Amino acid sequence: MSAIPLSPSNRITLSARPQPRRGTYFVQTWGCQMNEEDSEQIGLYLESIGFEKANNMLEAQVILLNTCSVRKKPEDKAFSLLGELQILKKTRKDIIVGVCGCMAQARSEEIKRRAPFLDFVLGTGDLGLLPGLVEEAAQNRKFRMRVELPERKGTVVEEVPQRRIDRVPKLKAFVPIQYGCDKFCTYCIVPTTRGRERSRPSADIYEEVALMASAGTKEVTLLGQTVNSYGKNLLEGRVPFSQLLWKLAEIEGLERIRYTSPYPRDFKADLIEAVRDCPKVMEHCHLPLQSGDDEMLVEMKRVYTIESFEKIISELREAVPHMGLTTDVIVGFPGETDRQFENTLATMERIRFDGAYMFAYSIRPGTPAGDRKDQIPEDVKKDRLARLIDQQNRIAAEKNEEWIGREMEILVEGVSARNPGTLQGYSREFRMVCFKGDPSRVGRTAKVVGVSAHQWGLVGELI
Known about the structure:
This protein is an alpha/beta fold. Helices cover 33% and strands 21% of the residues. It has helices spanning 33-48, 72-91, 101-106, 108-114, 130-140, 190-194, 202-214, 241-248, 269-277, 294-300, 306-319, 338-351, 378-401; strands at 23-29, 51-53, 62-67, 96-100, 120-122, 144-146, 172-176, 178-179, 198-199, 219-223, 256-260, 284-286, 324-331, 355-360, 407-415, 422-427, 432-436, 445-454, 457-462. The protein has a 6-stranded parallel beta sheet, with helices on both faces. It has a 5-stranded mixed barrel with strand order 15-16-17-19-18.
């Protein structure tokens, strides 16, 4: 079935306050921080037409699956849940079920074929159509599919719902500043599911963050597929990412700014200077390496070398000696030899990241790497991943031990569920720290000294 365009009248602008209650909704989310942020927007749109968040899926009148396509596992989970929802809909014909997100964008026809009971499939390009789709489903049950993406490079993103002060304030929040990607790495489906790279106007971002800060948000994480290439092709003129950081740092009440994920080639001196000199920008960077071998980087179409990557790491550590550094790594990419994998192990040992997200390569249909014939056997991928994880776990524990006896600033996020009387939160360098303290400290920063370390963080003592 081809995509069916919706008329402009089906676009619903968010009102300042939600409409009177008419039912409940539930969003099941898989994937990255960007997907979590999309689910936040989905909730805002549904509340604008009178729905309230349900405690669980079985209580909801509107059920949405916000899907991920970066790896095969979350897709399998989504199809499995659709099978359960098909049974549920036979007994509750009044419920509305839709699929959103990256898998909806990439596999819309397959989703419709495998789950014909759905009311709609909505891709990532126009979440603003969601209220209209729900209204139409409630009225006439006519299936809709909307999976169009902006084709033109540099389109400005303006239709992002603002958070309302009357919502429950969040101590920490994600803020999208950029959508899509122009890098076209050979393993990645994001350009297909999210479209070309486009940025939000800086004034919109500033207004949203200021509103959050006034409602009690202390920390924001700026989101983008290649977040440090933000600010190109804006109507206001080019706005460098570092300039945006400095501008947001002026907001009263905002205490911490993080960002993810920067692209190595676009990591310039002005960003390093902002990390060094701006007190509200945290001393942490998640810089995806993906492979520690130059030949693999070429095959992945990652436009940098190990030498240039390590130069950035060196400059960051020179500017901020206690800089927290984390990364992403893929093992078992098509054609990866034992020698190339050993090079990745050596690079990781040399750089010594504080933490890493490590994955075995997952075939993504429609990507250049997914079509290659030299796929690595699953048992080889699993063995390589296990070796890399063991090495990185050792390094992480050793890096955490370096903070024993040192002072850290912790944003206290809450009380440990496992250890009553123990508070927990992250340091500026993105280390999880637990320490004894009064619950009244939740939501504030605290000075803590490390007393013991483990693989996942530290135990501290309140100063």
